[in-house]
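This section describes the prediction task in plain terms. A model, or a person checking by hand, is given the sequence of a single protein chain and must write out its three-dimensional structure as a string of tokens. No templates, partner chains or ligands are provided. The sample shown here is typical of the held-out split.
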Amino acid sequence: MTFPPDPSGEHAPTAPARFPFPPEIDFSNADELLPQIMARALPRPGRPAPLLVLDLTATEFMDSQGVRLINDVNRLLRPETLVHVVARPDGLASRVLELTGVRRDIPVFDNLPEAMAAQGLA
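The expected answer:
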């Protein structure tokens, strides 16, 4: 059954989305992750999630391809969706984000609950 569009144009807000990254992010898998992340951030056509959290807590290795992937997601989704990253403070991914300056451009959190709750940050 097909439902006609809501004439008021108002829709219930979409919930925040979370995308868990794999243990390794490099040239072998970064390109295939982008469409998966975009699908998670856009659960319904024209209605993006208000917040996308890229969860790197399980990521043990990440090279420049992971940084490029995060920057691409951030560039493609703004301004419709806030992008937050969560990474273990003692992990390699967190260090890579710091060294490359990603932390300067995208909020990076130490744990998932904080990242999911911080929807007011840009």
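For orientation: The CA atoms of residues 30 and 69 lie 6 Å apart.
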